[in-house]
Specification:
single chain; mainly alpha; about 80% helix
Length: about 140
Amino acid sequence: MNERPRPSRLIALYLCLGLTQTAHSIEEMHAHLYEFFAVVGKRVGVPVSAMSADLFAMLNLAIGGLFLFSLWGLAARKRWAVALATIAGAIETLNGILHLSGAAVFRRYVPGAVTAPFLILFGLLVLRAAFSQADAS
């Protein structure tokens, strides 16, 4: 019997992804990722300047707010929220991959590398749950 996936599974996984992103943001702030942008830009040959800590913090707060808002949408079974969760799952998976790639390229810790595997894990789980829910609709 093919049972329709419960939205609560997607909500729970998306909440885990949001909490992981929060931990990831804290790690990035603590390790000064906003200053590391210039180092990365120089390494890859793209002129990038460092970002201010305040701007970086505001961007990360906005991401957290978007996660909270879309959790409401998922609980209310809104299609846009499932689409947003799918996009977030893809972005956070890519975010985690890029942080780990940075650690491999620099052969050392880079800001965000500790929480990156959890972004990949929960990002992929959110994608799977979102696609399952969309297929069942």
